[in-house]
Amino acid sequence: MDGVMDDPRQRAPSVARNRDPILKVLRRVLPQRGLALEVASGSGEHVIYFAKRFPQLDFLPSDPDETARSSIVAWISHSGLSNILAPIALDAGAPPWPVDKADAIICINMAHITPWSATEGLFKGAGCLLGSGAPLYLYGPYRRNGVHTAESNQAFDEWLRENNPEWGLRDLERVTECAALNGFIQPEIDEMPANNLSLLFRRRG
Length: 205
Prior knowledge:
This protein is of the alpha/beta class. It has one domain: Rossmann fold (3-Layer(aba) Sandwich), CATH 3.40.50.150. The chain contains seven helices and eight strands, in the order H-H-E-H-E-H-E-H-E-E-H-E-H-E-E. Helix 5 (about 115-130) links the parallel strand 3 and strand 4. It is globular, with a radius of gyration of 16 Å.
C-alpha cells in the first residue's frame, strides 16, 4: 500500500483519449531515427506511449516543473524502455534551451495553458534546433479566424482565462504567423477528436 501511495507517477485522463489519434499522425511525420524532443511533457505518459512504438527513435522529454519531471522519471523506470533519455528542465519561453539539436519536436496541449510568450519561445527555440524539413508537431484546441470551433472550446477558453488571464485558446492564424517568423512553412492541419487540431510545421529549407 505504501508503495502505491509513494508512486510519483502522475496520470492525465486526456492522454488515453488522444494518444492513438496523435500516434496515427506521428507515424506519418516522425523520422525513422534521431532525437525527438518533447516540450512540456507533463506527466510523461505520452512520451512512454510513443517511445514504445518508435523503438529506433530516441526521445528526450522535458518540463519546467520538477514534480512533472519526477513523474516522467518514474514512468521511464516503470516502462523499462531504453530509448527515452532523462527529462530535462526546459521552459519554452525562457531561452536558451538546454539542448543543441533535435530531429523532431513534439508539443502537446501547451499553448492554451501557458502565456503567449511560451508559444513564441517554442517557435524560436524550435527554429534554432531543427534542420531543413524537420517536423514540429503541435496538438490542442485552437480558434480559427478568431472563432471557436465548438461551444465546448469556448467554455474551456473562458474557464482558462478566468483562472489565468494569460492563458486561453490561441488563434491558429496568429500561431501560423509566429511560426513563419521563425522559419516554418504553412502547417499541415488535421482535425482531431474533441475539437482539437493537429498542426504539423516543417522547418523551411
